[in-house]
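Hey,
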Amino acid sequence: MAAFLLRRILQSLVLVWIVLTITFFLLHLAPGDPMARYEHPDISPETVMKMRGQLGLDRPVIEQYFIWAAGFARGDFGVSFRYNRPVGEILAETIPNTLRLTVASMALYVLFGLALGMMSAARRYSAFDRLNTIVALFVYSIPSFWLALMLIMLFSLKLGILPSSHMQSLDSASMSGIPLFLDRARHLVLPAFVLGVASAAGLARYMRGSMIDVLREDYIRTARAKGLPERSVLLKHAFRNAAIPVVTILGMSLPFLLGGAVIVEKIFSWPGMGGLMVEAIYTRDYPVVLAVNFVVAVMVILGNLLADTGYAVLDPRIMSKETGR
């Protein structure tokens, strides 16, 4: 297992560096200038040129790349062009917020997706299965931004039971303990639902199909013939084998959720990496874009690594093939 994980990690590091290199040159080749926002009658061209030199933007792109790469390899993400602050400090403020939203969404995604898929497979072709299929296809086809806006209109504007934006209330500074936890939980409900539960419809369909295939196997009929309870048959015998192809979907769901988080965070004014990334792209804040892209790439590759590990845990034969044993 150790050699298997080490090889996957080394491959992932090379892949991350390739992604960052491509992103670096695409940013510099794209139209736009980070100094464009300083083009103002009150700011002299000499001042703008001096700032450009201080940021190193007056050097050739290849030289800028090697300077950036040397600093990045040391863990130095540079200084934000817009905020004039170390990028590491900005990420330290936004990453926990995005992880809070992503982890909550992932938990709902897995819980609802697997549960609904297993129940539909156990009651296939029933009224519940047909209703679940219709609702799942309807929810899965709804754009996330439209669903977010509709939920805000219903639960925030019409009913007034859930907040429409931000991670906590404006008066949260005076809260602590359970009241602060409940306040943050209320703010988390709508964005986590849009990002997690609405996306669980696709996972439920995959889980249903995989469970139906497994429930047709001979060993399942044998388990039922022995008089085992249906719950035991589903959870102990069918689920493990049915989950193997679903692990791929779970591994791919992390980048899907992170990509959706950009839109959801912007709509709900959630102070995470999504909003930071959008603003950095608009203002051509190269160090922030590269740093956020690095974090996202690491999370995506981590999701794939967890999927590979899940394969090995559910079916040790896969690891044996990887290690050549």
